[in-house]
Amino acid sequence: MPETTPRRLPRPLSARGWSVRTRVLSTVVLFMTMGLAVTGVLTYAAQFRVLEERLQSELEQELSELELIAKDTDEEGEYQHESVDEVLRAATTSAVPSDNETVLALIDGEPAYKPFQQDFELVGEGVPGSAEMLAEIERLHVPGRTVTTTVQHEGRDLRMLIASVRVAGDDAAGIFVVAADANPPQAELWRSVATFTVMSLLALLVAAVLAYLVTGRMLRPLESLREATEQITVDDLERRVPVPEGRDDIAALARNFNRMLARIQAGFVEQRRFMSDVGHELRTPLTIVRGTLETTDPGDPADVREAHEIAIDELDRMGRVVGDLSELAASSRPDFVRPRRTDLGDAVRSAFSRLPHIGEREWVLERTAEGTVLLDQQRLTQALVQLAANAVRYSEPGTRIAVIADRVAGPAGPELHVAVRDQGIGIAAADQERIFERFTRVEGAPGSGSGLGLPIVRAIAEGHDGEVRVESTLGEGSTFTLVLPWRTPADGDTGDESAVSEGPTERPGGSSR
Ligand code: ADP
Question: 21 and 115: one domain?
């Protein structure tokens, strides 16, 4: 595989735009500001409305007291106050205006009575704007009616009630005025608004500082993770990011990242090893062919014939290696193994029928389990042919080679064991693990295989979620067993048997030996 991986990341993925911290912070501040603003506006709007209602009801209270006085009767049912003057005098002198409230009685346009004590006066000697106020009252007054209105006067924001007072049998026109200055209670409310605003700003500031510190603390591991990831390049896959203490998301992220790095690193190491193995494997036949041709006398037909045979032999070997390599490369593809509904007995018998062509041995199909299973028949045949070819290569002609397919109870459920047993040279215990690695040949073993046969068999087993086991004794023989999970097709799984080719699977490059 050509090394196309960029040597460095295109550019460090440092925090561009808004960092998470800034975003968290601005979100906290934004939401708090919105919350406080909405709370403040709603609360104070309600309070201002309550204030207006209170002022209005105070004015009405004075009016109802006036009405009570006007309707006041003695025991005989006679009215107590029989003239406008009497009514107004009684009403004003008994009135006790609340804070910021004033009461005034006019008779025929002239100020007549006022309470003994009140916060301020609208009309009177030395009262600023007295004449204007008098004119204003006259203007607003509607005979026979009670008027409520708002008047700005001398810096006061007055809520005024102007009631016309008439008494039957009296020609005098009385006016009863109650006014409340809304400024002082409003000013008080505004002071409270200001206090609320200042406290809210302080709370916002404190929250922002806390959010800044807390998010900084929380995101520190993420920040060091980011810095570490920036440092890691393809040439430096040894590095690991620090895993913060605890079991939170960031620790999990760091652990997963490190695991991913380990996998990538293993992949790179494997890729390099693969490249050097392949280079080494292909160099040997090339060297042999070149050496042979260099030493061949072109004029000597016998020499040329011998060189020709050697070259063909070596090129065949190269072909086998290349074929096996591409097979091995394909084994990493997800569709390398395509399990289908297969009749196990038929599949084993069909594969077994091809084995005697590999070499002259005593071929025995000891037994085979029966049943419909899910497996890739082509790949199973390919693995059996490979194992049989090895058995032939490492045993003497005439010796026995047995094939056995069994259903065995495994730790995680039933298993399918397909074994090839030979009476060949055997494999030393020390080599039994190693032989499944690429290009591994046991020293002193005869033949010149590619060293890729067993890795392909293993890839086929793993493609079925299984494995290959070997039992062997030097000088006595070996048994290679494919151990696959016994999978039966689910109901309704129509697996296409016809899609499984019946022909033997030749390894590319003609390596079926
Ligand atoms: P090769 O193409 O060399 O046979 P394999 O991967 O098939 O490559 O096998 C790797 C090595 O395992 C062989 O070189 C041989 O030493 C050993 N081996 C494989 N099968 C047998 C067997 N049936 N008996 C003895 N040795 C075996």
Answer: yes
Is there an atom of ligand 1 within 6 Å of 323 CB?
Answer: no
CB burial class (10 A; 0-12, 13-18, 19+) of residue 204?
Answer: middle
482 bridge partner residues: 418, 468
| 457 pLDDT higher than 50 | yes
Q: pTM (2 decimals)?
A: 0.55
Nearest CA to ligand 1 atom 8: 451
- Residue 423 alpha carbon to ligand 1 centre in Å: 14
Domain count across the chain: 3
Structural domain contains residue 223: no
Q: Give residue-wise pLDDT tens across range 315-342.
A: 988 888 888 888 888 887 888 899 999 9
**Would you state the pLDDT for residue 93?**
85
Residue 305, amino acid? R
* Residue 319 and residue 401 in one domain: no
Q: Is the CB of 416 under 6 A from ligand 1?
A: no
Q: How far is the CA of 407 from the centre of ligand 1 (A)?
A: 26
> Is residue 477 within 6 Å of ligand 1 at its C-beta?
no
How many Å apart are CA 358 and CA 403, to the nearest integer?
Answer: 14
Strands (E), 125-278: 146-153, 156-165, 174-181
Range of the domain at 285: 249-326
338 lines ligand 1 (CB under 6 A): no
342, 313: one domain: no
Answer yes or no: is 399 within a domain.
Answer: yes
CB atoms within 10 A of CB 114: 20
Interacting residues of 395 by C-beta distance below 8 A, sequence separation 6+: 361, 401, 422, 423, 424, 425, 477
Residue whose Cα lies nearest atom 16 of ligand 1: it is 442
Residue 243 in this model has a pLDDT that exceeds 80: yes
440 touches ligand 1 (CB under 6 Å): yes
The H or E element containing residue 187 is: helix 183-231
pLDDT at 435: 92
One domain for residues 410 and 483: yes
Question: Among 282, 304, 326, which residue terminates a domain?
Answer: 326
Q: Let me know whether 484 and 450 are in one domain.
A: yes
The verdict on 177 and 84 lying in the same domain is yes
Q: Is the CB of 424 within 6 Å of ligand 1?
A: yes
Tens digits of residue pLDDT in 36-66: 999 999 999 999 999 999 999 999 998 898 8
Confidence of residue 254 (pLDDT cuts 50, 70, 90): confident
To test the pocket of ligand 1, the residue of 427, 457, 481 to mutate (highest count of ligand atoms within 8 Å of its CB) is 427
CATH number at residue 259: 1.10.287
CA-nearest residue, atom 13 of ligand 1: 441
Q: What is the distance in A from the centroid of ligand 1 to the CA of 427?
A: 9
Residue 106 falls inside a structural domain: yes
Q: Which residue has the higher pLDDT, 507 or 255?
A: 255
Cα(394) to centroid(ligand 1), Å:
7
Q: Are residues 305 and 345 in the same domain?
A: no
Please indicate, yes or no, whether residues 25 and 73 belong to a single structural domain of this protein.
Answer: yes
Residue 6 lies in a domain: no
Q: Is 509 in the pocket of ligand 1 (CB under 6 A)?
A: no
